[in-house]
Backbone:
């Protein structure tokens, strides 16, 4: 089913019900809904991507399935559309690049592979023939037949980022960069790439990214962390918002018999740990079971649709540990927040200045 | 980044499609702007290609052969064998032919830059004679290169490729040929040279610091000629509107009217141009060559651009009589040629027929037609000499190979390529004589490479 976002949105309910089982699965898999946490993170991200601040490295950290990749892909698509409409004259620029950090079984970070991936995303030519310029003592030369070395790939990448006027490099699954690696070395490499080319690097990953970004002061000064949190079961506003997500998804259920998910919104919140992505996974599983049952819904499907208890506990532990680590470390959690903020607002509105 | 607060207007419901385009449509190559467009210091196409290749961190040969060549071949409907590439000399890159035209179009499509025609002599295609218009030798002005200071900012000017010019109009010094002045030990081996407009390809010296050629002051006439051509080049982006054959004919007529009161024969004689040639230019039978046209403009003290636009304007040269001497007419009569060829048979070392013919000022084919026996003897003698030289070099390579092998055996080191390279101080590139000589020796030993 090779339809674009606009074409899928234009499908009527009758047309959706007329799709085959596989197409219905693809249709429901592609659906994403707007919700409060997505909006807040999106607005913060746009502010941090402004070229008029010193933030070079932005990390979006959150639990698995909370919607980080969804947000970044939607942002990228919107920025590309905006860029195409504004910058029709500059057809060579690639302002935004999205790539995933490689996890190909190497025992340490393969920077050459990473650089190659970024260049491929930008449509670079002859990647296997890149060479590095050697400038020594007023002379310039190249090493014969030494293509695709690390120095060559780095040199070529910096040149590509400069000539293609790249503004943002999005690295998904950035946690792969620190498996088996030296955190300081990884962040030094990313920081020097951002400094030398003037781009902003957006890292997306789980709570493990926190250690990477906050390892030492030089990097911490240029970095910000956005916490893409989940909906908490003990916060009434969160429960209400989660209920809205469930209702929205229900409206797009691609079967005639629509399960009453709204009635069990609270239970669904518990089963998905408050993550919109895990909720989608659960509902997809339920849809699959309903489609295999010739479209007839049976509430017993919920038993198999949800994640197993031990797996859920494992994810919950990871999330709670990560959330504790992030307390006080994210964008907006500053000296001027909380109780102190109230006092500051009062002083500034009165125009009082104490020297 | 423009203000995009509204970019993230997340719709209530949206679809994340798996195969969505994550990249806007872009050009294949970077949109590198050519330097100096619209001025007399306009960049040449050759320099532009060097800089474009360097920005992609590949060699110009790879850019031309692997990216551009297939596109050009399709446009020209050329049928070349699979492994044969285009011949990328100055004529192809800078002149006015169909191939240059297609190269410019292909580059415009792949880079998105439309002004690249100004980096070639294309704008004066049907106005001036293209024979010897572009010099095949690479020349540069040392002061122009030095003012940039680094290899990346320096660029080659189109003006330096014009055959009729041999001076820089800005610095008033003669252009210098790109020859390396470094000692042979400091020269780079094959495939290590970096092709950049501001660096020597032989030793890698930035801003050609290796060159032993001193600065030579140009004469006033040479500077005047260079200034005229620089002015012409500065009009390049807009030449179709300004210059035409009709305007050139009208400009020439008016020049002769002003210079020699309409007496064409007198005007032609004063500039050592045959009067029929000037007739032909005025009546559109032939196109004038740039050097002859400059001579005429110099004699009449009129600017070249104004003659081409049809309204000649005075442009005096400070010292018009200080012309560089013309090379002597080398064409010999037939009897003298025969005598020279007979003498050539007895000289040692023997020379090729082509070099003998060049000295006589005629083509090799002409000699072969006029004196077939003598030409065949000279050719055979030269080939025999080449074969003997080659055999001697092979013998020397074998002797050196034996010496290296014995040296390594004495030191009890394995006969690997790395050790042989170290011992010989040579890269031992494939097909080099020394490597070919070592091959049979290596096969006899159990080796590790």
Residues:
């Amino acid at each position: 089913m090779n339809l674009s976002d606009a074409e899928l949105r234009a499908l009527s309910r009758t047309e959706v019900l007329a799709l085959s089982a596989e197409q219905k699965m693809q249709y429901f898999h592609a659906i994403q809904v707007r919700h409060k946490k997505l909006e807040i993170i999106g607005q913060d991200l746009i502010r941090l991507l402004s070229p008029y601040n010193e933030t070079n490295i932005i990390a979006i950290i959150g639990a698995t399935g909370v919607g980080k990749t969804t947000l970044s892909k939607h942002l990228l698509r919107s920025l590309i559309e905006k860029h195409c409409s504004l910058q029709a004259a500059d057809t060579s620029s690639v302002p935004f690049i999205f790539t995933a950090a490689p996890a190909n079984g190497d025992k340490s970070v393969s920077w050459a592979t990473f650089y190659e991936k970024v260049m491929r995303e930008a449509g670079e030519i002859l990647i296997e023939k890149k060479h590095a310029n050697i400038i020594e003592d007023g002379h310039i030369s190249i090493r014969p037949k030494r293509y695709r070395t690390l120095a060559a790939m780095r040199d070529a990448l910096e040149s590509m980022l400069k000539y293609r006027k790249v503004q943002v490099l999005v690295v998904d699954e950035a946690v792969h960069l620190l498996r088996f690696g030296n955190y300081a070395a990884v962040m030094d490499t990313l920081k020097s790439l951002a400094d030398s080319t003037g781009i902003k690097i957006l890292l997306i990953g789980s709570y493990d990214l926190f250690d990477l970004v906050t390892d030492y002061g030089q990097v911490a000064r240029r970095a910000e962390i956005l916490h893409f949190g989940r909906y908490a079961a003990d916060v009434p506003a969160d429960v209400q918002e989660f209920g809205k997500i469930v209702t929205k998804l229900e409206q797009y259920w691609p079967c005639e018999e629509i399960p009453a998910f709204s009635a069990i919104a609270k239970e669904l919140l518990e089963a998905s740990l408050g993550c919109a992505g895990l909720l989608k996974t659960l509902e997809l599983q339920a849809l699959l079971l309903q489609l295999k049952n010739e479209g007839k819904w049976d509430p017993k499907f919920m038993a198999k649709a949800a994640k197993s208890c031990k797996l859920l506990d494992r994810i919950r532990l990871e999330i709670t540990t990560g959330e504790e680590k992030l307390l006080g470390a994210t964008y907006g959690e500053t000296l001027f927040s909380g109780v102190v903020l109230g006092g500051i607002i009062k002083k500034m509105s009165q125009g009082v200045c104490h020297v | 980044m423009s203000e995009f607060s509204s970019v993230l207007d997340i719709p209530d419901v949206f679809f994340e499609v798996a195969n969505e385009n994550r990249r806007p449509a872009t050009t294949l190559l970077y949109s590198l702007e050519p330097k100096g467009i619209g001025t007399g210091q306009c960049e040449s196409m050759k320099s532009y290609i060097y800089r474009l290749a360097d920005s992609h961190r590949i060699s110009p040969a790879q850019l031309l052969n692997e990216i551009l060549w297939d596109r050009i071949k399709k446009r020209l409907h050329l049928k070349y064998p699979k492994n044969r590439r285009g011949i990328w000399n100055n004529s192809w890159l800078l002149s006015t032919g169909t191939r240059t035209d297609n190269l410019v179009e292909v580059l415009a499509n792949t880079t998105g830059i439309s002004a690249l025609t100004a980096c070639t002599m294309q704008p004066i295609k049907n106005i001036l004679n293209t024979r010897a218009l572009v010099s095949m030798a690479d020349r540069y002005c040392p002061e122009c290169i030095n003012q940039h200071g680094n290899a990346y900012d320096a660029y080659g000017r189109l003006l330096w490729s014009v055959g009729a010019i041999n001076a820089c109009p800005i610095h008033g010094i003669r252009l210098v040929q790109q020859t390396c002045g470094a000692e042979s030990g400091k020269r780079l081996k094959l495939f290590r040279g970096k092709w950049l407009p501001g660096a020597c390809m032989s030793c890698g010296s930035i801003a050609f610091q290796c060159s032993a050629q001193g600065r030579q002051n140009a004469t006033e006439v040479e500077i005047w000629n260079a200034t005229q051509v620089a002015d012409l080049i500065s009009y390049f982006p807009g030449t179709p509107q300004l210059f035409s054959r009709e305007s050139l004919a009208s400009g020439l007529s008016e020049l002769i009217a002003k210079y020699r009161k309409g007496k064409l024969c007198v005007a032609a004689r004063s500039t050592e141009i045959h009067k029929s040639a000037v007739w032909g230019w005025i009546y559109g039978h032939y196109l004038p060559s740039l050097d002859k046209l400059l001579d005429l403009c110099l004699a009449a003290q009129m600017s070249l651009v104004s003659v081409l636009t049809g309204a000649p304007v005075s442009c005096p040269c400070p010292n018009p009589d200080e012309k560089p001497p013309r090379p002597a007419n080398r064409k010999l009569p037939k009897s003298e040629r025969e005598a020279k060829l007979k003498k050539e048979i007895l000289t040692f070392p023997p020379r090729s027929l082509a070099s003998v013919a060049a000295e006589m000022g005629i083509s090799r084919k002409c000699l072969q037609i006029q004196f077939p026996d003598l030409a065949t003897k000279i050719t055979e003698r030269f080939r025999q000499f080449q074969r003997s030289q080659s055999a001697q070099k092979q013998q020397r390579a074998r002797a050196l190979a034996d010496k290296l092998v014995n040296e390594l055996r004495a030191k009890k080191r394995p006969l690997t390529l790395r050790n042989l390279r170290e011992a010989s101080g040579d890269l031992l590139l494939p097909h080099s004589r020394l490597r070919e000589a070592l091959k049979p020796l290596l096969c006899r030993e159990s080796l590790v490479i």
In short: The CA atoms of residues 135 and 163 of chain B lie 4 Å apart. Confidence is low (pLDDT under 50) at residues 1-5 of chain B.
